[in-house]
């Protein structure tokens, strides 16, 4: 029975370690998306045209 308590304690420490690593990665900008904004400007015209065509068809 004491082995279960030991395994639970170890798993909690491992989970806390992964959580700390995740928070550190987010704060350091690991998950920032630098690619999409540069590509989005290439397709802005298509989005504007499709919005205008939808608004003119409803009138």
From TrEMBL:
Record Pfam families: FixS (PF03597)
Regions crossing the membrane: 6-26
Domain of life of the source: Bacteria
Record InterPro entries: Cyt_oxidase_maturation_cbb3
Keywords: Membrane, Transmembrane, Transmembrane helix
Metal-binding is among the record's keywords: no
PANTHER family hit by this protein: FIXS PROTEIN
Name of the protein described by the UniProt record: Cbb3-type cytochrome oxidase assembly protein CcoS
Organism of provenance: Flavobacterium laiguense
Taxonomy of the source species: Bacteria, Pseudomonadati, Bacteroidota, Flavobacteriia, Flavobacteriales
Gene: ccoS
